[in-house]
Design goal:
Blueprint lengths: L2 H9 L4 H8 L3 H9 L6 H14 L5 H8 L4 E6 L5 H15 L4 E6 L4 H12 L5 E5 L5 H9 L4 E4 L9 E4 L2 H14 L5 E5 L6 H18 L4 E5 L5 H15 L5 E4 L2 H14 L8 E3 L16 E3 L2 H16 L7 E3 L3 E3 L8
Parallel strand pairs: 1-2, 1-3, 3-4, 4-5, 5-11, 6-7, 6-8, 8-9
Antiparallel strand pairs: 10-12
Helix pairs in contact: 2-3, 2-4, 6-13, 7-8, 9-10, 11-12
């Protein structure tokens, strides 16, 4: 193929009119299908999608954005791309919003306000239809940028005061209280909290503070030993933290973990040391990960509303972009799952 042929081929972009002609519909019907697929009949939608697939058509979203001053993308910032808890929320959001013709623009902050600020600045330059952030802790500049924009903002996975716009989540402090209360009811009197990155993970910090407050109320004095594993491989860090805890506080009889992965590491170390769970030490995690009911013994944990948050956030986004009113704060609660790791004989 010579250069002229290659150049001519590169400029022959498939257009919406080409799709409309092959599907035997109007260009406006194709446009409606791309923007609001639910408003097109199933039969027409299948014809249009078939034409799109045949021609390899890629819609020019920026062209529509210039006319509407908005792209059909939703900016989403999560603390971590590898944390399965956030992954399930984002996956649920994508399914719900994708069905309405929106796509997610995903970034992560690595629990750093400066990183979040950089991602938010970049996303705002793309004129998103809405922004979704994780938690309530943001830099002053991030809050200023979002407050000065007219973009709807949904903060998720947390409850608290002074939200930017709409808040969807649950109380992490109440989670910590529930975990501590459960261990005390199981007979524990010397309780530790093992977390990771507590200096930057505000939600884990709140759970730790809630457990400390509950133990103070229930036992009359401070009975919480707090260990921060820091960044790194959580299961390995939990092994070391568990070993350090047994060395420094051998009378520990209950442990609250910042997440189920930490608990999994400690369970393995307990088995290697011949420590009976829960008879010697009761353990409770957070997250209700897929493996949590398959450990030995099955892990007591807190089930956060991961998918529910994704669905409600998607609903809030759609309501806001359509100009409908929305409650400022939505508390979705959580569930404590009592399993064998805390159920003593």
């Amino acid at each position: 193929m010579n250069n002229k042929s290659r150049q001519r081929r590169s400029t022959q972009r498939v257009t919406m009119n080409d799709v409309a002609k092959l599907a035997d519909v109007s260009a406006s019907t194709v446009s409606l299908y791309l923007r609001k697929p639910d408003e097109v009949s199933k039969a027409l939608g299948q014809r249009i999608q078939g034409a799109i697939n045949t021609l390899g058509y890629v819609p020019n979203l920026m062209a529509g954005a210039l006319a509407a001053a908005r792209t059909r993308v939703i900016g989403v910032v999560v603390p971590s791309m590898v944390n399965a808890i956030f992954a399930s929320t984002v996956n649920t959001m994508q399914k719900a919003l994708g069905a309405q013709g929106y796509q997610l623009l995903l970034g992560h902050s690595d629990y750093a306000e400066a990183e979040e600020e950089a991602v938010v600045r970049t996303f705002l330059s793309w004129s998103p239809s809405a922004m979704v952030l994780t938690g309530l802790s943001h830099s002053r500049e991030t809050r200023r940028m979002l407050s000065n924009s007219d973009v709807p903002v949904i903060e998720m996975w947390e409850l608290g005061s002074n939200p930017l716009d709409t808040l969807v989540g649950f109380s992490h402090r109440d989670v910590g209280r529930a975990q501590a209360r459960h261990l005390v009811e199981a007979g524990c009197r010397k309780v530790a909290f093992i977390g990771t990155r507590l200096s930057v993970d505000e939600r884990a910090k709140q759970r730790c503070a809630g457990s400390e407050a509950a133990l103070m109320d229930l036992l009359g004095s401070r009975h919480t030993r707090v260990i921060d594993c820091g960044p790194g491989r959580m299961a390995e860090a939990a092994n070391q933290a568990f070993a350090d805890l047994l060395h420094s506080h051998p009378d520990t009889d209950g442990i609250i973990f910042g997440n189920d992965m930490l608990a999994l590491g400690a369970l393995g170390e307990a088995q290697r040391r011949g420590i009976r769970i829960p008879d010697d030490i009761a353990m409770i995690g957070f997250g209700d990960m897929d493996f949590s009911n398959c450990t030995l013994p099955p892990l007591s944990t807190i089930r956060p509303p991961r998918e529910e948050i994704g669905n409600v956030v998607a609903e809030c986004v759609l309501q806001r972009v359509q100009g409908r009113p929305q409650e400022a704060c939505l508390d979705l609660g959580f569930e404590l799952l009592a399993r064998a790791s805390t159920l003593r004989r």
